[in-house]
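Ops channel
N.P.: pipeline sanity check, posting one input/output pair.
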């Protein structure tokens, strides 16, 4: 069951998502002395991250942060690098306090890097996963048809045409041809192991994916639909992203 919350606009949506996540982080630190989170990237996460780093009462030195994915072969100096994105928008405002576990897309052997990350996250209980939904309904870089069965925490994946078009359309690359064709991505099952999943999904261009994730069947053809089977997922939308909902979730408007 996905708890849908529709906020008036993208800024308030991101702020609400950050406050909810901060509550969970603080609770984990009180209960276990530490917290483990997953942070997402992309244009949909700008507002959430800007608010998250200002939330009071979090001892960030007790937080370990993984991220969802990274392009294979993309230098960290590239504006589209997710490692760069998180260092600038998450680590730098916090003075580098969290323990950040980057996905090294420049590793000589991407499969070995996926195994390295898998071994590290296997030692953790993930308290909060912050994520989004792609225009093709992908979750992380698990494009359709997504692998719903593998228990490997990280995978080397091939990006489909819709995913690559989204990255170009958001302005991260100068041409469609410049968008890498492969990435290292957290798997669907690893995301599902998170105690709390908080999704921030703004914009009209995500409306069809939101509808498919919420109102369609659970299917690898709509990867984010798997979240219907998660016990504690909260989806924050703005009105344009919610505009195609017709079922029970539409009553949140």
């Amino acid at each position: 069951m996905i708890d849908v919350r529709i906020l008036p606009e993208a800024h308030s949506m991101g702020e609400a998502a950050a406050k909810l996540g901060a509550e969970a982080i603080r609770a984990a630190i009180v209960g276990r002395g530490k917290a483990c989170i997953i942070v997402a990237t992309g244009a949909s996460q700008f507002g959430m991250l800007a608010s998250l780093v200002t939330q009071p009462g979090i001892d960030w030195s007790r937080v370990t942060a993984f991220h969802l994915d990274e392009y294979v072969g993309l230098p960290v100096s590239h504006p589209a690098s997710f490692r760069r994105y998180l260092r600038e928008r998450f680590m730098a405002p916090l003075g580098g306090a969290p323990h950040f576990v980057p996905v090294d897309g420049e590793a000589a052997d991407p499969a070995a890097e996926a195994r390295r990350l898998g071994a590290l996250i296997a030692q953790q209980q993930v308290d909060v996963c912050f994520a989004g939904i792609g225009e093709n309904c992908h979750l992380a870089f698990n494009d359709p048809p997504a692998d719903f069965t593998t228990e490997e925490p990280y995978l080397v994946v091939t990006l489909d045409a819709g995913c690559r078009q989204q990255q170009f359309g958001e302005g991260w690359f100068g041409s469609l041809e410049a968008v890498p064709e492969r990435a290292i991505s957290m798997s669907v099952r690893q995301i599902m192991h998170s105690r709390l999943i908080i999704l921030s999904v703004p914009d009209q261009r995500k409306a069809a994916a939101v509808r498919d994730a919420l109102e369609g069947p659970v299917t690898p053809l709509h990867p984010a639909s798997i979240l219907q089977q998660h016990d504690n997922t909260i989806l924050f939308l703005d009105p344009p992203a919610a505009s195609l909902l017709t079922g029970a979730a539409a009553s949140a408007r």
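N.P.: looks fine end to end. Residues 2-244 form a domain with the Rossmann fold fold (CATH 3.40.50.1360).
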